[in-house]
Input
Amino acid sequence: MQAPLVVDATIRSAARIKGAEAGGLAPGYTRFYVEADVLALIRGDTPVPPRVGWLVDAPNDARGRPPRLRRLRVIAFARPVPGRPAQLQLVTPQSQFDWTPQTVERVRQVVRDTLAPGAPPAITGIGNAFHVPGSLPGEGETQIFLLTANNDPVSLSILRRPGEERRWAVALGEIVDDAAGPPQRDTLLWYRLACGLPRDLPATSTANEEPARAAIAREDYRFVLDQLGPCRETPGDAPLVMR
Output
């Protein structure tokens, strides 16, 4: 989302950068200037020449040796360099990822979701939350209203029924669809929730609730966070980390 250009390319050459030009390099990384042949422009309105170059900080292998980047197919998240059409700047020094079918499909899907009308907005906080008990013991529904960057309505609903697992859903709009469910992992909506929701339900969100109902609302909110999973992947997981 920070990158105006997302490029699918094969690295043609890689020159190691040393000395002062490698200033600020993180431990365990080597800086390269790479030139790459563009295979596809996954995202971008700016024309890109067939061959482009950029600086990248690439992780060393387990023995501390610099990686071999030549002929490697990569996905680069970048921005154009003004006045230098054949050069790009990565949005972060490590915004180059090895190409895999899974990674490129994930990237394409997120780009489609980002550009689509009604794209899930960024979550900025939590508004009111309340729990309504049902007619049977252990039955009830919690609703949590989220605050968003563009003020579009987003809400969570958590349904409890005796003898059943809790179910939850997210609604983008004023009306909660009974057939709605949780977002699929690694989609833009999942990312907005997993990375945008605070770790705890603010006390102000349940200030008008009875203590027992407020406690259930907090439990249901924690249930949603557990179901979403962590925002960032841990080392050793798939190479793409959405920040």
